[in-house]
Amino acid sequence: MQASLFIARLLAPVFVVIGIALLTRPEAYRSLLREFVASAVSMYIAGFLGLVGGLALLLTQNLWVLDWRLIITLIGWISVLRGVATILWPGSLAPVADWVLKHRNSFAVSAVIDLAIGLVLGYFGYLAA
Q1: What is the tally of structural domains in the chain?
Q2: Do the beta carbons of residue 120 and residue 8 sit within 8 Å?
């Protein structure tokens, strides 16, 4: 449980800050996404970091239990899968980025999801512990 608390305390502020940033500066992040997809180096580095970060989460905690810790496990697996896909098929993210850029509400939806994840992890990491 200590590892889960540490990870929750680590990830909660990250998700909250990202959620707030996406809500308050969506145009800046649209521009950032365009530049990111256009850069093969950025794509590779992001894939590598996603793979390493996801593996670190899974090696620390890979619990398939029906409680808040499942969020951490899912974040780890999503990071690993996205990292592998980005490294092996970097062009596969371009259609996803295009879809996100075309749909004006996608950043707001992502922000709300990030905030929700951050608040849940923050609650269990800081308050319920």
Answers
A1: 1
A2: no
Give the torsion through C-alpha atoms of 20, 82, 61, 126, to 10 deg.
0
Q: What gap in Å lies between CA 47 and CA 51, rounded to an integer?
A: 6
Q: How far apart are alpha carbons 2 and 27 in whole angstroms? A: 39
Region 99-124 average pLDDT:
96
Contact indicator for 71, 117 with CB cutoff of 8 Å: yes
- Within 13 Å of residue 114, how many CA atoms lie on the same side as its CB? 18
The Cα–Cα gap between 73 and 78 comes to 9
What is the pTM for the complete model shown? 0.92
Domain that includes residue 58, residue range: 2-127
Calpha distance 16→80 (Å, rounded): 21
